[in-house]
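Hi everyone, sorry if this is the wrong subforum. Our group has a chain we'd like a structural model of before ordering constructs, and none of us has done structure prediction before. Sequence below.
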Amino acid sequence: MSPQDRYRGLHVVVTGANGFLGRALVKRLEGLSCRVTGLGRSTGFRLLEDELPLEGVDHVFHLAAETGVPDSWEDPVRFHLVNAHGTVRVLDQCRRSRTSLTYVGAYIYGTPLELPIGELHPIDPSNPYAFSKWMGEQACAWYADVFRMNVSAIRLFNVYGPGQSNRFLIPRIVEQALEPGDADIELMDLSPRRDYLYVDDAVDALLHAMPRENFRIYNVGHGVSHSVSEVADIVLRRTGSRKRVRAAGLPRPNEIQDVVADTALLRQESGWAPRVSLEDGIQRVIEGFQS
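Answer:
Right subforum, don't worry. Here is the predicted structure as tokens:
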């Protein structure tokens, strides 16, 4: 049985179902004939107050979170409450209902000591967002150990795709390339390199990482990095734009220069592998804007 087929026909709860990754996950689960209960702000669900409807539920994907590194610097307490304490609330409800959980976390390694970055690399969160997601992951490890819960924790690298907010790099570049009113493409810094993973490959990884025993941590990325400059070059080539790319030369606080995920663990344990190249993924983002 394939990892995806293990979900076929199950009753699944997805928190953060109306977010960028949540929408893609819900669509895939519905394609597997799952009964999906999607929860999020747009459905009136309040992570810090409400109970999850877990009667008869087989599995929970916990994606609901405060996101965005710049915003986390403005309100670290809010990020901690939602991403750490909110995760504890979800874990405790899953404990009581004996429901397995997939926790969707984020990059928490800080400046890497070596590349690629494996799951055993030291943790050094470089911003309040990463710190809050690490605290959520620590809660998952504790609950899985003490209460013998089945939990998978996903450390996502840079996921992108059609429908993503222009707060993120790739859609921001594509939008500027296609906008007739923009004379140039304005960016902050062209040098940082990131490991970009197309959203469909990220969803595949979540399905392949279905928890089977106690607690597992998996890196989820493509396994190769690209600079901002390289991303912009692909966008210009694929859109046919002749706009100039202008960089303000303003690196973000605590900027990390290069990030590459070591995804060998998930590949070996489940057979998962990314399938969409950065070139093809950016082309799909462009088509999403054009349509």
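For your construct planning: The radius of gyration is 19 Å. Residues 4-162+196-223+262-275 form a domain with the Rossmann fold fold (CATH 3.40.50.720).
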